[in-house]
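subagent[fold] <- orchestrator: predict structure for attached chain, return tokens only, no commentary.
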Amino acid sequence: MQIDTKRRADARLAKIEGQIRAVRKMVADDRYCVDVVRQVQAARAALAGLESVIVEDHVDTCVQHALDSGSPDDRREKVTELVSILTGKKK
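subagent[fold] -> orchestrator:
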């Protein structure tokens, strides 16, 4: 993972960590269910954003390396990995 990606991922993780703590407190404080659900949705969106950052880095580094390597097996493996994570299927 590239240094900038690690920095961006860490910042997003810190935000997500705070959101999860807030949801936990809301549950403990017996807050209104709709408000809790909205915070869960915000945390889920933040996780999706983190996922995008990591996938972009993977394409820019690992996938690009496989494409440049000239190995059909490496290329196929990386494409299969991408398809599996984008479709939510296990490899």
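orchestrator: received. Logging for downstream: The two ends are 21 Å apart (CA to CA). The chain has three helices and no strands.
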